[in-house]
Amino acid sequence: MELKIQTLSFKHCLFFFTFQVVVAFFFFSATFQGKVKPDDIFVTDVPSKPEEPVKIILLWTWPFGTAFPLNQCPSQFDGTGCFFTVNRSLYSEAAAVVLHSRDVCSSKNQLPQMQRPPNQYWIWFTMESPSHNPNTGFMEKLINLTMTYRADSDIFTPYGWLERHDGTENVSIPEKTKLVAWVVSNWNPNSRRVKYYGELKNHLAVDVFGNQRLPLPREKHIETLSKYKFYLAFENSIHEDYITEKLWHNALASWAVPVVLGPTRANYERFLPPDAFIHVDDFPTAKGLADYLHALDKDDNRHKQYFYWRRSLKPVAPARLNSHYCKVCKAIKEAPSYRTVPSITNWFK
């Protein structure tokens, strides 16, 4: 019995050996005749295309000392191929260094002091207006790219924008029980907005929130402002494209019609439909504006016309600065020929 099993095993081995020889013969014959390509067999031996080196983007400081998640770009901003960091030890390897103006403006010593690597981009970033950006003179001939709310910046970072939607968005206006609100923290009696308010309040009741005025808890910001039909989106200084969160967040997020004081109506219309806001310059006097708002308050149909644009558009106001920084990645990958901005002071005014 045992001998029989061994005999059978030998026969089986002989059979499989013969079978393998035959298969090998036909396989290599086909290869020789060009029917099977060597790359089909040894595909793992073909070297893959090397990936582009990761571009390091160094945030020289957290803006105003406020940290936020890095390397977590929103879906609409492509952050692939870039690595964001605040680790200054990576300075010599960084493709770009982002300098937040207000955090480095007090002294040139706050800028990087190490030898600058060839073709490293220094990016000047600010969301403040020229009126609140001091000491730009010592940055002359040091900056390669600008990153601001101005539309002509190398990296455009507006406070908000409009996006199209498919028409399924809910455009029902929240119930409004109050008339006009204004949130102000920087009360400068010599500013145009405070002077204008001084005239307006003689003809129109305005609820003013802010320092030493009506309290407005952060967690109830939008909930509170949503009760008002109109919001005074008055900018603290008047400059091209300087249209801030006062409009994009305070007014539009609370479904209040913005009453704007800032750049010209034509400038606003570069970013908003003409019937999305009311401009103080549309009226010769503050009393004229007050009379118009009182008339709208009594006419629901005319008031609703300021919301028709929402049937196809929705406002977007990023809550964090990471969306602005994420734009640096695309800008660096598509940057024009390396150059230096001659004068930040002359450009940003």
UniProtKB/TrEMBL annotation:
Subcellular location: Golgi apparatus, Golgi stack membrane; Membrane
GO cellular component: Golgi cisterna membrane
Pathway the protein acts in: Protein modification; protein glycosylation
Fucosyltransferase C-terminal domain span: 174-347
One Pfam family it belongs to: Glyco_tran_10_N
Main location: Golgi
Domain called Fucosyltransferase N-terminal: residue spans: 54-160
Keywords: Glycoprotein, Glycosyltransferase, Golgi apparatus, Membrane, Signal-anchor, Transferase, Transmembrane, Transmembrane helix
Statement: the UniProt record of this protein carries the keyword Nucleotide-binding: no
EC class name: transferase
Single GO molecular function: alpha-(1->3)-fucosyltransferase activity
Species of origin: Xenopus tropicalis (Western clawed frog)
Domain of life the protein comes from: Eukaryota
Recorded topology in the membrane: Single-pass type II membrane protein; Single-pass membrane protein
Family listed: Belongs to the glycosyltransferase 10 family.
UniProt catalytic activity: an N-acetyl-alpha-neuraminyl-(2->3)-beta-D-galactosyl-(1->4)-N-acetyl-beta-D-glucosaminyl derivative + GDP-beta-L-fucose = an alpha-Neu5Ac-(2->3)-beta-D-Gal-(1->4)-[alpha-L-Fuc-(1->3)]-beta-D-GlcNAc derivative + GDP + H(+)
EC number: 2.4.1.-
Residues that span the membrane, as ranges: 12-32
Name of the protein described by the UniProt record: Fucosyltransferase
